[in-house]
Amino acid sequence: MNSLPVFPWRLAPPGYATFRQLRAQGLRPGGQDVAAVLERPRRRRGPLVAYLYRVDRAKPVRPMTPARWAALAKANAAQQVCSNCDQDAGYRIPTSLGMCVACAFPEEQCAA
């Protein structure tokens, strides 16, 4: 069994980065496996774990194509349409409500 090296919190050697650190540098793991583990101890629970990737094996983030921009715009527009009244709310509808605020709380709209 091939075990991964485990580093204490904030003591990872240079050349390793988390997914978010790679993304901040404009990189992605690019299909590589996790190279190391970063652990932060906690008092009453198990340690917090962060997976590290090798920076030298990371690949650049793929650029957004016009088709990907169009798909993203379509997905964002779909999240603004109320499922109850089928109108564009002008904001992203909360998943906790599942409908626009006017449909979720009609008594408050009448009082105002």
Task: Give the secondary structure arrangement, pairings included.
Blueprint (H helix, E strand, L loop, with lengths): L5 E3 L7 E2 L1 H6 L2 E2 L7 E5 L7 E7 L4 E2 L5 H13 L22 H4 L1 H6 L1
Parallel strand pairs: 1-4
Antiparallel strand pairs: 2-5, 3-6, 4-5
Which tags fit this structure?
about 20% strand; four-stranded mixed sheet; two-stranded antiparallel sheet; 6 strands; about 110 residues; 4 helices; alpha+beta; single chain
Strand content: 15-25%
Overall mean pLDDT stands at: 90
Distance between the termini: 66 Å
Q: Classify the helix fraction into a percent range.
A: 25-40%
**Most strands sheet:** 4 strands, mixed
Task: Going across the biggest sheet, name each strand in turn.
Answer: 1-4-5-2
- Spell the H/E element sequence: EEHEEEEHHH
* SS class: alpha+beta
The total strand number stands at: 6
Radius of gyration: 22 Å
The stretches of 5 or more residues where confidence is low (pLDDT under 50) are: none
Principal-axes shape call: elongated
Summed up:
It is built from four helices and six strands, in the order ββαββββααα.
Q: Would you give an account of this structure?
A:
Strand 4 (36-40) and strand 5 form a beta hairpin. With 112 residues, the chain is α+β, with helices and mostly antiparallel strands. The strands form 2 sheets. Strands 1-4-5-2 form a 4-stranded mixed beta sheet. Strands 3-6 form a two-stranded antiparallel sheet. The protein contains 4 helices and 6 strands.
